[in-house]
Amino acid sequence: MSNHVTAPKGTKDILPADAGRWQHVEAMARELFKAYRYQEIRTPVFESTDLFQRGIGENTDIVGKEMYTFESKSDDPTKRLSLTLRPENTAGVVRAYIQHKLFAQPLPQKLWYTGPMFRYERPQAGRQRQFHQLGVEVLGSDDARWDAEVIVVATDFLARLGLPALEVQLNSVGDDACRPAYRDTLQAYLRSHQDALCENCRTRTEKNPLRVLDCKVPACQPVVQAAPTITENLCDGCRGHQAAVEGYLTAVGVAFKRNDRLVRGLDYYTRTVFEIVSGDLGAQNTVCAGGRYNGLVEELGGPSTPAVGWGLGLERLLMLLPADATPATGLTALIMATHGAAEPVAFRLAHDLRGQGLAIDLANGGKLDKQFKQAERLGARYAVILGEDELAKGVVSIKDLTTREQRSVPLDGVKDALKGAVAGGK
Ligand code: ATP
Ligand code: MG
Predict the structure, then answer these.
(1) For the whole model, what pTM was predicted?
(2) HSE of 312, CA atoms in CB hemisphere, 13 A
(3) Which of 68, 124, 131 to mutate for ligand 1's pocket (most ligand atoms within 8 Å of CB)?
(4) Strand runs (DSSP E) across 119-165, as ranges?
(5) Are 295 and 389 in a shared domain?
(6) Counting atoms of ligand 1 from 1, which one is nearest the CA of 119?
(7) Could you tell which of 167, 269, 272, 286 is best to mutate to test the pocket of ligand 1, judged by most ligand atoms within 8 Å of the CB?
């Protein structure tokens, strides 16, 4: 197999051995979202390129260099639109919110999503080109309680998965009232320290000065650390909002750390921004990131709609989960036929039992001891044996693979015997 095809760089197969962990995480998320009344939304994996350019901003890494953009097919060249694989899902959710007039429904709309996202990045641990996010968006209220609620949903989720020790970092990036003046102050400061900044930061000074605060280059740190902070430049409205968010978090005992250097890469954030970070992930240590984006819905052509949300990287989350978080496969019984004439009987019995909601599979055949080995390997709870003499009498044997007890049951009584045993937890 020298010329076999492999998965593209930066993508990963999730194989059956690992799928149980993904399902476990997704099931926990669904349960929690139900408790908080978040409803699921599924939007397309590709959208108009224009949506991301307007919704994320031209001066971001995502739009600047990470998008998978292609032209749609059409015989008519004027109809060939530019499309992009979604690099994140807030823009898509907001597009759907506007397109389907969800704003006319009771507000706030509390939505969640999960699915693959695509970014052209250098693959490394915790960084892929196709990765998966889980996310929430609360649209239609600027009340600080929703900023707090989305953070608490995230910390509850992580705690239920057995990961309570992650750190919530919190900041406010201001709003239209105070950020423009701060942006100018910061830009003037950075311009006067260009010599001590990396090339990237020199570009960002002109295009997106707040992003300089996010720079990880060691040489830039003295300038970054001494930079004027947004915190000392917030307007009263933003200050009050931040205090309210912190009050709600404190009310439910969610610990947080103020980080006045925390900014988000996306232009549309206002007021609250936060990240949930782990000390166990190396360079890619942000598991969950989000904030308030009061300007985005209007920016994309909808009615003025304040909103808040987050996105969580599932690959990074799974890196933190121990392998034993995997639930068992849950096979109730493996059906074993000892001879050819029993095969159709076994096939039909399996079909009947599955119809009763039991998890059933057919053994591969061959010698009985090999079939028992297979049952063990699959973690089956019972073996149902269709032997020649037994079938002649209309009975089968059911063996409990935990206690090793075996009993004889009429063929038409297998259903009740297994259902009773499963229900009784035996
Ligand atoms: P980073 O600083 O790690 O590049 P980001 O600011 O680009 O993150 P967001 O756009 O906020 O990330 O996405 C939310 C979350 O999605 C991240 O915190 C991370 O857990 C995950 N994520 C982002 N990009 C990738 C990627 N290329 N591969 C895997 N997970 C990712
Ligand atoms: Mg990134």
Answers:
(1) 0.91
(2) 27
(3) 131
(4) 130-139
(5) no
(6) 27
(7) 286
Give the distance (Å) from ligand 2 centre to CA of residue 148: 24
Q: Give 236's contacts (C-beta < 8 A, 6+ positions apart).
A: none
Do 127 and 44 lie in one domain? The reply is: yes
Nearest CA to ligand 1 atom 23: 313
**Cα 218 to middle of ligand 1, angstroms:** 21
Q: In this structure, what CATH number is given to the domain that contains residue 146?
A: 3.30.930.10
Q: Please give the Cα distance from 41 to 26 (Å, whole number).
A: 14
Instruction: Report how far ligand 1's centroid is from the alpha carbon of 400 (Å).
Output: 47
Range of the domain at 376: 333-418
- Same domain assignment for residues 349 and 294: no
Angstrom CA distances, 197 to 201, 202, 211, 217, 263, stand at 6, 6, 13, 9, 18
**Tokens (6 digits) for 176:** 């239209």
Distance CA 182, CA 197 (A): 20
Please write the tens of the pLDDT for every residue from 185-234: 999 999 999 999 999 999 999 988 998 998 889 999 999 999 999 999 99
404 within some domain: yes
Which residue minimizes the CA distance to atom 13 of ligand 1? 311
Cα of 313 vs centre of ligand 1, distance in Å, is 6
The Å distance, Cα 284 to ligand 1 centre, comes to: 8
Distance CA 25, CA 33 (A): 12
Q: Does any domain span residue 59?
A: yes
* CATH assignment at residue 400: 3.40.50.800
Condensed to tens digits (0 to 9), the pLDDT of residues 69-122 reads 999 998 898 889 999 999 999 999 999 999 999 999 999 999 999 999 999 999
Indicate which residue's Cα is closest to atom 17 of ligand 1.
Answer: 313
Residues 278 and 371 in one domain: no
CB-based pocket (< 6 A), ligand 1: 88, 119, 121, 126-128, 131, 133, 265, 284, 286-289, 311, 313, 315-316
23/172 same-domain check:
yes
Task: Name 116's bridge partners.
Answer: 132
Q: What are phi and psi of 114, to 5 degrees?
A: -150, 155
